[in-house]
Design a protein that fits this description.
This protein is α/β, with parallel strands linked by helices. The chain has one domain: TIM Barrel (Alpha-Beta Barrel), CATH 3.20.20.70. Helix content is 44%, strand content 15%. The chain contains 11 helices and 8 strands. Strands 1-2-3-4-5-6-7-8 form an 8-stranded parallel β-barrel, surrounded by 6 helices. The two termini are 22 Å apart. The structure holds cytidine-5'-monophosphate.
């Protein structure tokens, strides 16, 4: 059974966030990113946990191993369900992240899952070639980061839907493929480049989808969520 879509709570404040969440029970998964976390701090996590939401804390850590390890120790103590690092930080950084998480997880609690960001879904082939000076294709670069993430002992990656199938083949079906850049055919791409529909995500083997503006920017967010959820799960949408 597919996990429900993860709603990206890219809001300015706790007040806006809870106004939005009014239409949702604790049955949805949410993602807290930099904007909301930097504004509201750990208190936003406690408030969301009180409401029963599963939380992906998307802070994309990328620093020297020791710093990432200490930071992860703190994040684990917040009781979130999923965290991430940039795979570009390297194997020793990712191993340190895992160590920090293990150390910081309160006894009797489950360690948060941890995934590596491969190439951002806002990155395209030209940027990989001209800005990062990477000579292989974007897909090969994503695959290399996925293999490195797996070798480092992490639970999965953030990637676009377009790389999910090849990552499943190489890293296994159970390896998490958390895919942002989800759009309905009628919605705009905004800053995202490697986008896909919920149906494509299901077909290509994403294990989780992250959806922000297609839900948060909709005139009826609950209806948009239900439609995306139905398309993701492959059930008929009557709306
Ligand atoms: O609004 P939209 O659906 O594009 O939001 C996608 C969310 O997923 C944003 O919060 C963004 O920070 C996050 N994300 C992403 N690409 C990644 C990792 C995270 O778009 N590789």
């Amino acid at each position: 059974m597919k996990k429900p879509p993860i709603i990206a709570l890219d809001f300015e404040s706790a007040q806006q966030t809870f106004e939005f969440l009014h239409a949702f029970e604790g049955d949805v998964n949410v993602k807290v990113g930099m904007q909301l976390y930097y504004k509201e701090g750990p208190a936003i996590i406690s408030k969301l946990k009180e409401r029963g939401f599963d939380i992906f804390l998307d802070l994309k850590l990328h620093d020297i191993p020791n710093t990432v390890k200490s930071a992860m120790e703190v994040l684990a103590s917040l009781g979130v369900d999923l965290v991430n690092v940039h795979a570009a930080g390297g194997k020793s950084m990712m191993e340190a992240a895992l160590e920090g998480l293990d150390k910081g997880t309160p006894s009797g609690m489950k360690r948060p899952s941890i995934i590596g960001v491969t190439q951002l879904t806002s990155t395209d082939e030209r940027q990989v070639r001209e800005e990062q000076l990477i000579q292989i294709s974007l897909q090969e670069s994503v695959l290399q980061y996925a293999k490195l993430t797996k070798d480092s002992g992490l639970d999965g990656v953030v990637c676009s839907v377009h790389e999910a199938a090849i990552i499943s083949e190489v890293c296994g079906r159970e390896f998490l493929k958390v895919t942002p850049g989800i759009r309905l055919p009628e919605s705009g791409t905004q800053d995202q480049k490697r986008i896909a529909t919920p149906e494509e995500a299901r077909q290509e083997g994403s294990t989780h989808i992250v959806v922000g503006r297609a839900i948060t920017g909709a005139s009826d967010p609950r209806a948009a969520y239900e439609q995306i959820n139905a398309r993701w799960k492959g059930v008929e949408w009557i709306g």
